[in-house]
Design goal:
This protein is mainly beta. It has seven helices and 30 strands.
């Protein structure tokens, strides 16, 4: 009965929301069959990422290997210096609360909670909270991460409002990896001497975004045209602490204090856009003038800049095809930098295509241009700062027939004239161009209660293995007479060849390329899950390959492979 009521309310509310939805953006519609953590087949890894010895618990679900676009998305390897992406909005005709909790070895705890509520046919609220903390696998590797996002939208015939707010915090202890991997056999991974005992990075960030739409065709139910105004504020702060009576022997320079490092910088930004928009069932676009003002503050020194850009969005929706593009071009203040992000989706019978083409020509970030710290000082602004060209092209084509699926994907990332951190400064004259190309297959098949998933890729890159293969074999079906308990048990295996390692530099919290290579490795995990009504329980035993692999195998220059890890989790969804 509740499922039928949800369906009826969903149909009613979706019709009411559809008029201005193109401007407000696409949403995931939650039906009564929605579960936090995604599909049951892969909840063990989708809800909680693969464990890692990297600072902050790692960032990859692909056996601790870097994605093809790592150095493209994270300028110069600065993955910790970014806000998390905005969550895709969810629509639910009935209030929905989703909750998930994971705990395990290394004091791992992860919480994901979501709240979705359409108060009326004109208002929608989304709240997302994510927490991840643990002690990592190495000494002094504790970390804690929190991310809270609130998204609210209001729609009326003349005026519509979209509000987004986010607060994030990250506390990451920086052990800088092991002193010598040969000591692991003697001490064990958890007690092996590390390179730094008292170092920590702290990040705090807040951003607020407001979008206002004034429809001058409010009496026309099929078209919308008028004025839009965007107001955005971002504040991002980074601090680095380190205490040691041997700082002078660790670093080449001491600028402030011989035993204590207390570096910090803060970047504040205000972005205001005003322009015109037009929307109808299958087409929307908006174009406006944008003013960016930012202020970079670093230990008493500050740099301020005002920039004028031209910003445009366009989208087209057809029965089988959707197209999105956002292009931004600087007119004053930022050396004519620009970017263009494009997405194309196609669905036809059992075939689906998802393709992206993102290209940019941007200046380095403010903290890359100038920085003064206890052990570091550089100033790129005394010379001409060059723009960095970045190209990301990726496409995935899938064909689905009943329980069978096959897919082909192609990824290419090109970074030219990029700034890299070398010899205590950022330079772009040592590695002019870097490219990563990846092509592979995905597949899924099953018969009755047995299923098999496979993903394999061939990669040409300095930081990826030339071959990466992952497979999941599992039994899944409903148990007992009432068939209400859905159960799963399976194994996941992987193999990758060796690849060039990256090095993490704690005092800057960035990754850089090295000429040192890792070893090939085979790994094995065991997983299982149960589902009854709105409740799920799952477990995962990771890194069984640690027992037969060489303990000195590394995933980064000073970080070795993680040991066995056990995680247990639950998810629960409530519709009211």
């Amino acid at each position: 009965m509740k499922g039928i009521l949800t369906l009826i309310l969903t149909m009613f509310f979706v019709q009411s929301f559809a008029q201005n939805n193109a401007i407000m953006g696409e949403k995931d519609t939650l039906t009564y069959n929605y579960y936090s953590g995604g599909v049951f087949d892969s909840i063990d890894i989708a809800f909680s990422p693969h464990s890692s010895t990297l600072p902050g618990g790692g960032f990859s679900t692909s056996e601790n290997t870097l994605p093809y676009n790592f150095f493209l998305n994270n300028y110069g390897g600065t993955i910790y210096h970014n806000f998390n992406d905005w969550k895709t909005k969810r629509f639910s005709a009935m209030p929905h609360l989703g909750f998930g909790y994971v705990f395990g070895m290394q004091a791992t705890q992860q919480v994901k909670a979501t709240y979705t509520h359409a108060f009326t046919s004109q208002t929608l609220l989304n709240i997302d909270y994510t927490m991840l903390k643990g002690t990592n696998f190495l000494r002094s590797g504790d970390f804690g991460k929190h991310d809270v996002q609130l998204q609210f939208e209001f729609q009326s015939r003349f005026y519509s409002l979209d509000v987004k707010g986010q607060f994030m915090s990250r506390n990451i202890k920086q052990n800088d990896g092991v002193q010598a991997d040969s000591l692991i056999d003697y001490y064990g991974l958890a007690f092996t001497p590390i390179r730094k005992e008292n170092a920590q990075s702290k990040y705090r960030g807040t951003r607020i975004e407001l979008s206002h739409y004034f429809d001058f065709l409010s009496k026309d139910s099929n078209n919308a045209m008028g004025l839009y105004i965007d107001n955005k504020m971002n504040i991002f702060n980074r601090k680095y602490y380190e205490f040691s009576d041997t700082l002078q022997s660790i670093y080449s320079y001491i600028y402030l204090n011989t035993d204590t490092t207390n570096d910090q910088y803060q970047l504040s930004e205000l972005v205001n856009v005003a322009g015109l928009f037009y929307s109808r069932n299958r087409l929307f676009f908006k174009v406006g003038a944008q003013n960016n003002w930012w202020n970079y503050y670093n230990l008493g020194n500050h740099i301020a800049q005002s920039e004028i850009n031209l910003d445009g969005h366009i989208g087209m929706n057809f029965k089988l095809l959707s197209f999105r593009n956002n292009t931004n071009f600087n007119l004053i203040g930022a050396e004519r930098e620009w970017f263009s992000f494009t997405n194309l989706k196609l669905h036809w019978k059992g075939i689906s295509l998802d393709a992206n083409a993102n290209v940019s020509y941007l200046l380095p970030e403010p903290f890359q241009r100038y920085y003064l710290g206890n052990n570091l000082f550089y100033n790129l602004m005394t010379n001409k700062i060059d723009k960095q060209f970045k190209l990301d092209i990726n496409a995935l084509v899938k064909y689905t027939f009943k329980q069978h699926q096959i897919g082909v994907f192609v990824n290419n990332a090109t970074v030219t004239n990029n700034y890299w951190f070398k010899n205590n400064t950022w330079v772009n004259d040592t590695l002019k161009s870097l490219n990563a190309f990846s092509v592979g297959l995905t597949g899924r098949t099953g018969y009755k209660v047995i299923f098999f998933d496979l993903k394999g890729s061939y990669n040409t890159s300095n930081w990826m293995p030339s071959m990466l293969v992952q497979g999941r074999l599992y039994l899944q079906g409903r148990l007992f007479k009432g068939k209400k308990l859905l159960a799963q048990i399976g194994v996941e295996s992987s193999y990758h060849t060796g690849y060039k390692l990256v090095e993490h530099l704690p005092y800057m919290d960035i990754f850089s390329l090295t000429s040192v290579s890792s070893k090939a490795m085979a790994n094995l995990h065991v997983f299982g899950a149960f589902e009854i009504q709105r409740f799920r329980f799952f477990f995962r035993v990771e890194n069984l390959g640690y027992f037969w692999s060489d303990k000195t195998t590394r995933i980064a220059l000073n970080q070795t492979i993680p040991s066995m890890n056990i995680r247990i989790g639950i998810t629960w969804d409530f519709f009211n």
